[in-house]
Specification:
alpha/beta; 19 helices; 5 strands; globular; binds flavin-adenine dinucleotide; DNA_photolyase_N; Crypto/Photolyase_N_sf
């Protein structure tokens, strides 16, 4: 034992299994005090006037904290919940609780790293050592075949090198008990309500299939159901571009984003599935997607704040439009382009959108409307239940053409995409009820219908449903 009492600060690692920070604290400290700090800066308003953490993700976060607290209670301990700036709240707690070390998981982007640095400084001034651990990726940073600063810019190069030269580390097992510092006379703290965080409760949305609850237990429940009960992993590659329902893709993203489950745990479960059920392209493809996630994280670390700048890592000249009313039409799902609007309405109503949808709506905003890609990324940051700073800003840079995509133009032809992914218009019909009467593929181009047909369908385009913001010809561009 190296320490008497270790504060374990939980961040985006809200789990007890495969948690190196927690495992090392248990190993090196006689007693531990787990703590989560709700930082008011996470609930600020962004430059574009939206909450930094919207109601869907905030609710998922509160559920995840509750679940973690219950896990600690079952292990004979408690999760303290504090509110305030972590660098101040933790230093204060360390002093009151006579902790002699603070452990936490490392983050990669500047806001989070500034908090780490401020905490380290405060702890140093108090003579308290801090130890931090790399947690969030499938491949550990120290196992990459290159220094992070030399992460290949092209995804395929990155993937091939890590697949050939790095190994995924084994997971840390869940602790069976903890030595919780019981004599600490500090209130364990209540989990705030959404209202106390200045947010409204999400309205129940009958059309939503995104039935997810925050926390490690539900993450494991989804893993169990997707892999073993429903046996869906073996067809993941064929279904992953779907749009409707809970099961076309894994939906692991909200849990991964808050660290309720680790990518290594998913990796080990894929390997088990391959041994016990089936090994094919689909089982590999889920790992392939987790490597994308790693890639954006290492790219974010390599390029620092450039990933948030409108010029991106390519230093492109800023020639974006900043048309507020068109941006709002995009946000509200009122651009007059049904496939775009359906996706944007799903996001607004549920906090989720498929990967196919995200690529399409992002391409539409930047390529068809020419609007500043950082506005789109900021809206996603506020609204997504699975917002992950590196995956979100990295993907947006990619689509915005200011990132590391070797292709010059990532333009998505919306009608062609609609033909491939929603040929009968079933998806659009769910989210745009005002067009529900339009049959088959015509729902993607209601403006092509003759006025007589429209009258029969009782649809008055421009009134019941807006005229498209961009000329149809541009949608038909190759
Ligand atoms: C503009 C844009 C913004 C995005 N913002 C986010 C975000 O904030 N948070 C987020 O987790 N993903 C983001 N993605 C990636 C992807 O859309 C989601 O990870 C995926 O839709 C989540 O659903 P799933 O868990 O069912 O994915 P699955 O298809 O089941 O994939 C499994 C996991 O692989 C990872 N993954 C899959 N695709 C990607 C990708 N393109 N980039 C990085 N990781 C990936 C995710 O962790 C995902 O949970 C974004 C994509 C785009 C185009």
């Amino acid at each position: 034992m190296k320490y008497n009492r270790v504060l374990v600060w939980f961040r985006n690692d809200l789990r007890v299994s495969d948690n190196e920070t927690l495992s090392k604290a248990i190993q090196l400290g006689k007693e531990i005090i787990p703590v989560y700090v709700l930082d008011p800066r996470q609930f600020d308003t962004m430059e574009i006037g939206l909450p930094k953490t919207g109601k869907f993700r905030a609710q998922f976060l509160l559920e995840s904290i509750k679940d973690l607290r219950e896990s600690f209670q079952e292990l004979g301990g408690e999760l303290l919940i504090l509110q305030g700036k972590p660098e101040e709240a933790l230093a204060d707690l360390a002093s009151k609780a006579t902790a002699d070390a603070i452990f936490f998981s490392k983050e990669v982007t500047s806001e989070e790293r500034k908090v780490e640095a401020a905490l380290e400084k405060a702890a140093f001034a108090m003579g308290i050592p801090t130890e931090s651990f790399w947690q969030s990726t499938l491949y550990h940073k120290d196992d990459l075949p290159f220094p992070v600063g030399q992460t290949p810019e092209v995804f395929t190069h990155f993937r091939k090198e890590v697949e050939k030269l790095s190994k995924v580390r084994r997971i840390y097992p869940s602790p069976s008990r903890i030595n919780y510092a019981k004599d600490v006379d500090i209130s364990s703290g209540d989990i705030p309500t959404l209202k106390e965080l200045g947010l409204e409760e999400p309205k129940p949305e009958s059309k939503s299939w995104m039935k997810v609850k925050g926390g490690e237990r539900s993450a494991f429940g989804r893993l169990q159901s997707y892999f073993w009960e429903k046996d869906l992993l073996k067809s993941y590659k064929e279904t992953r571009n779907g749009l409707i329902g809970m099961d076309y893709s894994s939906k692991f993203s909200p849990w991964l984003a808050l660290g309720c489950i680790s990518p290594r745990t998913i990796f080990e479960e894929v390997k088990k599935y391959e041994r016990q059920r089936k090994k094919n392209n689909s089982t590999y493809w889920l790992i392939f997607e987790l490597i994308w996630r790693d890639y954006f994280r290492f790219i974010a670390q390599k390029h620092g704040d450039k990933i948030f700048h409108v010029e991106g890592i390519k230093n492109q000249v800023d020639s974006w439009r900043r048309d507020r009313s068109q941006f709002e039409a995009w946000v509200e799902g009122k651009t007059g382009v049904p496939f775009i609007d359906a996706n944007m309405r799903e996001l607004k109503a549920t906090g989720f959108m498929s990967n196919r949808g995200r690529q399409l709506v992002a391409s539409f905003l930047v390529n068809d409307l020419g609007i500043d890609w950082t506005w789109g990324a900021s809206y996603f940051e506020s609204q997504l239940i699975d917002y992950d700073v590196c995956s979100n800003w990295g993907n947006w840079m990619y689509v915005g053409g200011v990132g590391n995509d070797p292709r010059e133009n990532r333009y998505f032809n919306i009608l062609r995409q609609a033909k491939n992914y929603d040929p009968n218009g079933d998806y659009v019909r769910i989210w745009i009820p005002e067009l529900a009467a339009v049959p088959g593929f015509s729902i993607h181009q209601p403006w092509e219908l003759y006025s007589k047909q429209l009258r029969e369908l009782k649809i008055q385009l421009g009134h019941t449903y807006p005229q498209p913001l961009v000329r149809i010809s541009s949608l038909e561009r190759a």
